[in-house]
Amino acid sequence: MRRVLTSEIICPSRHKWLHDKRADEADNLTRYVYNLSTTSSTVSSSATVDVRHVARHYCGNVIRRLVFNKRYFGEPQPDGGPGPLEVQHMDAVFTSLGLLYAFCVSDYLPWLLVKEANETVNKLHDAIIDERWRQWKSSERNQDHQMEDFLDVLISLKDAEGNPLLSIEEVKAQSQDITFAAVDNPSNAVEWALAEMVVNSPDEVMGRAVAEIDAVVGQARLVQESDIPKLNYVKACIREAFRLHPVAPFNVPHVALADTTVAGYHVPKGSHVILSRTGLGRNPRVWDDPLRFNPDRHIPPVNNPNNGTNSNNDVALTENELRFISFSTGRRGCIAASLGTAMSVMLFARLLQGFTWTKPEGVDAVDLSESKHDTFMAKPLVLRAQPRLPKHLYPTISN
Ligand code: HEM
């Protein structure tokens, strides 16, 4: 299945093919945050915005557009925000993800809650998949026309004999896996990065990121994916969030298929291998002052081709040396580094370019504590957002 996904779904040609849907969702994000920030319920000129809410729903929108060609399961919302079904979808996805990273399920989550969450996700997905399956089987849709999204690709895949490659159950399982895999990492990293920036020397760190966007993109158009290669400091901030605030304390367990030696340790065949993400990312033998949010550590001197830069010295979000875990590496590493990078950078860069983020009035300090149950922020990040671009640049019409 991994081979099928990498060759047919999460491959460079499909990434390009689906660019415009991702661009629509970046515009929708800007529009939604603009609407939230200008519908002020207080005397102040700008309202507060729940960053977690907008980040998670941006990720949900992107993945629904790519998989099902839909932002909304239900009625479109005039402000670009989620409706009740989209809220249900993301809440259920995040509840199910809690199970994925739990060591021992019963320690963390009531089983019934997870079962219900899975049923919610399946109910929302199945209605679309069943109908689409019917359309393909009745030739209402066919290969030559109307290939719109990952779902069309999954349903129409053929084996070497020209027979359908996947059953409907397999299509459903893949759609669910892709959805689960796409949402938590970008939203968590961006929420933490923005929180760290607002708390720690905002003028310096946030100021530099915004200045980079202004220098690369200017203030006469919105950031696009084509700008990503040049937004090195912005990417360094996201890398720093992955390092310091991974989405989960451990990676999912893997089993060693053969005897091996890693970093001088003998790992016998059959061992369950669990990497500590926080242990790697906060290791003082690798990272100076490891608890400090310092994106500069990812901007190496020119001519250092290692660690976080590619041959052009661009900063990348991948970390193949495993000094921390972003996309991991090797045969079970993430298959979607390009999509994950595009989602994370566009989310972060659009928030930074479009708005000035500050503590809400009357709040002394932004609380940077971690949740007791996972590595998310204990409380959703709520900040004051002030539009900073000319008004006509904020998209107003839903696409
Ligand atoms: C910033 C975004 C993302 C990050 C940081 C990330 C990170 C990871 C990591 C660390 C793993 C390995 C887990 C393990 O140890 O087994 C993984 C696996 C995976 N990711 Fe991602 N991911 C991201 C986005 C995505 C997206 C957008 C998709 C798909 C649309 C995706 C699909 C997958 C799949 C299918 C696997 C399982 C690969 C396998 O088991 O062979 N990821 N991801």
Tally of strands: 7
Strand order of the largest sheet: 1-7-6
Mean pLDDT across every amino acid position? 92
Backbone shape: globular
Q: How many domains comprise the coordinates? A: 1
**Level-2 CATH architecture:** Orthogonal Bundle
- Estimate the strand proportion: 5-15%
The CATH topology corresponds to Cytochrome p450
Element-level helix/strand string:
HHHEHHHHHHHHEEEEHHEE
Bound molecules: protoporphyrin IX containing FE
CATH superfamily, by name, is Cytochrome P450
User: What is the gyration radius calculated from CA atoms?
Assistant: 21 Å
The major beta sheet can be summarized as: 3 strands, antiparallel
- Count of individual helical segments: 13
Q: How would you classify the helix and strand content by structural class?
A: mainly alpha
Low-confidence stretches: none
CATH class: Mainly Alpha
* Residues in helix, %: 40-55%
Terminal CA distance = 33 Å
Family: Belongs to the cytochrome P450 family.
Cofactor: heme
Keywords: Heme, Iron, Metal-binding, Monooxygenase, Oxidoreductase
GO molecular function: heme binding; iron ion binding; monooxygenase activity; oxidoreductase activity, acting on paired donors, with incorporation or reduction of molecular oxygen
